[in-house]
Amino acid sequence: MSTTNEAIKPFRVVYGDKSTSVVLNAGDYRTNIFAERAEDGFEGNGYDWGSLATVFLEEKMPQLKNIVRLDPEGDMFCAYSGDRQALESFALAFHAMCEDEAQMRDLFSRAELD
Fold it and tell me: Per the confidence metrics, is the pTM higher than 0.85?
């Protein structure tokens, strides 16, 4: 558990009895990339992260589209699933994409404002 959380900082995995979640406090990470699309209405809030995650799932992990669910809020990004292994796979891959600013910009260029 803690190994995954160390690998995906500043995201964190929250383990529950029936589902597992990955969360991020919006506005604390990659704000520069969201600022690049401020004229389009993006602010870097949880909904904007959800828009990015939607594109990521569609293009990079389509096998998880119906397994990993998104439930962003204004100040928090949240994805969850009853399949712990699938959610951990998503979290690791999504974080790796975010660490590659060029790849993140590319995917974010196709994100639609929620």
Answer: yes
